[in-house]
Design a protein that fits this description.
Layout lengths: L6 E7 L3 H12 L4 E7 L2 H8 L8 E5 L7 H11 L5 E5 L4 H10 L3 E4 L5 H34 L4 E5 L5 E4 L1 H7 L3 H5 L12 H8 L3 H4 L5 E6 L5 E13 L2 E10 L1 H44 L5 H33 L1
Parallel strand pairs: 1-2, 1-3, 3-4, 4-5
Antiparallel strand pairs: 6-7, 6-10, 8-9, 9-10
Helix pairs in contact: 1-5, 10-11
Protein name: PAS domain S-box-containing protein
Pfam families: PAS_9, Response_reg
Organism: Flavobacterium degerlachei
Length: about 325
């Protein structure tokens, strides 16, 4: 199935009709389908661009229009377009002005005296594709910003050189108790307990902080109110405002750690119970069973007591089995 050929919609803003015809002629020989709209001045261009049903792939703009100053036209035109790239058409005399326009957001500039159909086509296609990439990047940035600021887990970005906080999300502000302005005047070391500073300083001089992306680390942090919490940290190196930085996500696992400690304490208690059963309880039990066994084998015991001693001995053996079973189960828990 053949795809429908792309039709390029082009707005040419040019007051010189001869120059417009030249551009129109160049466009007509291109190996692509085009729709051309002509505006002779800024007012006409503004009217065309304000139509809700009209969208252009590219705008070809002459810098010298009769109804607007040369130093204002670029800014005004950029305000009128959104997704559409603007290519400036200039003369040799205005090259300096055109180069400055690039820094303001113009996609490219072409010198009229040197213009060829191939040069025009290349500039148009490259400008359109660059604009698509730029907006994809901007959309990705927006998605990152949404994920960052709306995350229920505390997140922040810090500078890898100074360790200064560069940005924090609402969850970090809520969980740690610092205002955003306070965070941005702090380094990440300031949310560590003082007794953990040696661990922080050791990490500063380690190359691991530059290579271990997404690796989980378990640390302690200190809130503004002084509470110390256990956190699970995941981080990744990013570029933030042209600086090498680290994006961090912190998960408060203090309650989980408390539960683990409770279980460990219970296991310790079970181990102590097992030791008590195996040493303290079994010792007198073993003595009692030895005495019963001795009495059973004695000739001086009346026959009517022999059955009673047998029951005592069987009960002792059963109790010894129960104690052994408790010890075995406790040892199994400790191994886990």
């Amino acid at each position: 199935m053949n795809e429908t050929p792309k039709i390029y919609s082009i707005l040419v803003v040019e007051d010189d009709f001869n120059d417009f015809e030249k551009i129109e002629r160049f466009i007509s020989v291109l190996e692509c389908k085009t729709e051309i709209k002509h505006a002779k001045n800024f007012k006409e261009a503004s009217l065309i661009l304000s139509m809700e049903d009209k969208f252009f792939d590219v705008v070809l703009l002459d810098l010298t229009l009769p109804d607007i100053a040369k130093d204002e036209i670029v800014g005004k035109m950029l305000d009128l377009v959104f997704f559409c790239p603007i290519i400036v058409l200039t003369t040799n005399d205005d090259v300096g002005m055109s180069i400055k326009s690039i820094s303001k957001g113009i996609a490219d500039y072409l010198i009229k005296e040197e213009l060829t159909p191939a040069m025009l086509f290349k500039s148009m296609v490259c400008s359109i594709e660059r604009k698509k990439i730029f907006f994809s990047y901007e959309m990705a940035k927006t998605r990152y910003s949404d994920l960052f600021h709306l995350s229920p887990l505390p997140m922040w970005v810090y500078d890898l050189g100074t360790f200064q906080f560069l940005d924090v999300n609402d969850a970090a502000i809520k969980n740690y108790g610092f205002k955003k302005e306070e965070f941005l005047n702090m380094t990440i070391k300031e949310i560590w307990p003082v007794e953990d500073y040696p661990i922080f300083d050791q990490g500063v001089y380690s190359f691991d902080q530059y290579k271990e992306n997404f690796k989980k680390r378990y640390l302690r942090h200190q809130k503004k109110n002084g509470d110390i919490i256990n956190v699970e940290i995941q981080s990744n190196i990013i570029f933030f405002n042209d600086s090498k930085a680290k994006l961090v996500m912190a998960n408060d696992i203090t309650k989980q750690m408390q539960h683990i400690k409770t279980i460990e304490d219970q296991n310790k208690s079970l181990k102590e119970i097992a030791w008590t059963h195996s040493h303290v309880v079994r010792a007198p039990l073993a003595k009692m069973m030895s005495i019963i066994d001795y009495m059973k084998e004695s000739d001086g015991i009346p026959s009517e007591y022999e059955n009673l001693l047998g029951h005592f001995f069987d009960s002792g053996t059963e109790l010894d089995g129960i104690i052994r079973d408790i010890v075995k189960k406790t040892e199994t828990i400790n191994k886990k």
